[in-house]
Write a structure and sequence with these properties.
alpha/beta, 3 domains, 3-stranded antiparallel sheet, 20 helices, 20 strands, 543 residues, Rossmann fold, 5-stranded parallel sheet
Length: 543
Amino acid sequence: MADLICRWRNGTAKTVVELANTLPHEKMPVDQFREKMKLCYGGDFFRTPYQLACQLALYCEAEDGFYYPRFDHDINEAEAEEYLKFWIARYFVPNPYVRKDGFQNIECPTYFLKSLCDYVKKHPSCEYKDAYYESFGETAKNNDDIIRNYINNYSKVLNFSKDGILSLTGQSLEERFAFMDRTDKKAFFDSFDTTRTKSTSSPIKSFTPAQIIYYGVPGCGKSKKIMDLLDIAKQKGEITDEEKQVVRVVFHPEYTNADFVGQVMPVVKPAGGVDYDFAAGPFTRILARAYANPTKPYFLVIEEINRGNAAAIFGEIFQLLDRHKKGESDSVGGNLYTAGWSKYFVDHVDVNGKISAEIAGTEYGSDDEKPAVTFTANTAIRLPPNLSIYATMNTSDQNVFTLDNAFKRRFDSELVKNTLDGELHKAQRETKIENTDITWGVFWEKVNELILEKNTSMISSEDKRLGAYFIIGEEKTDDAGNKYREISRKLFGEKVLEYLWDDAFKYKRSTVFKNECKSVESLIENFEEGGFAAIFKDGILGL
């Protein structure tokens, strides 16, 4: 194992000033440089301080036999701070200044900050040690205090808490990417040249696609979770045209592969007669846009993925869900497919035609904006790295299609917790229920406890619970001008009580509701007239 960054000292502006101003400010032969530095730091400069100075790219002893300094003058802490902000977005491993036996199984470069950000995007509020292992293929060593200092003071995009949790700040990450040789000292040094403009650095953007199914009880916030992820992408400037970069589709029992991918349809010609053209489905439309615009992220959002026959809907496209991981690649037809691309390909003449037309109809400002692959009439289709797939699934749905293990293993799964805790959910928690002194948060908690109690014999009893956002009140203003939310009795009866009667307490009605409630109609009528006391057995909810 190897340290990601040398822990000689904290990477502060003060440390950078000390190192930079100790180093010579002019280019010179390496022997001359070493002679100048041999007495610095009590003769120990070339034991540990040099490693941090080199990792910070403050100097380089190049293969041409010369020493190159980063700065040609003494710097102050303000300059050092700006440099650290520039440096941290570009620092990568493996590099010439980490142990040769470290980071053997990852690509060069694997960018320190971007790799962690990509993992946190897929796993919000994750532990640093997990993000480190997945990003760099090694177990984090005992220098997380050093890493925390770099991240919190200079990254702008990540926050590293004292208890080891990483989270995004919402700011965008400045990126610069190119393939590197881990042993090339001069190339590593040049990567941190602040005088270079964007036109002289590689603008290639690297994407780590997400394929995630968010699951949970109805109303727990699965769709909101996806909306929040897309909102973050908007705030970072990654989504600039949502109508083009995001496609949403809802699966249902009648939905087919032809609806999803596309089908040949008759088209009436203006001059008379009929032509038959391929009408692209949502999958093909977003795929074509992603191919044509490789510098932007694209998102396919599938709501209720298990309410349709997902395996049949995807059809042969199913095998494209397997993606290359870091370090994996293959080459077909002169095109190199690296991390993020589908491992396998599918021949589909009509989809190929749509992608070709999309590329041909796109205007590019430079060659760097064009697709990285050469797309011809014979090119098979794959999922590109800039296309992510988000899906939702209700765990309580009945009479729906089951996702088999082969399908599920190609997606990450994340349970959306059914909670109203915290400031984020305060407005929903304190929503009033019309003409009662009970808030939604109190009712939601009590009735979910009752659902679990009454369905202990059912394996999936917790899936019967009400989601935190199963129902949302209308915003109102009181006489004093204060805003609040309120759920009308009518809406509450027809949505919440109907669910409790027909689903959650379907086999326990006599133990939960009063004898006067003989049907869902009488249940709702009694509630609208007499509130909770008129429908629930005395003391059963503890309201």
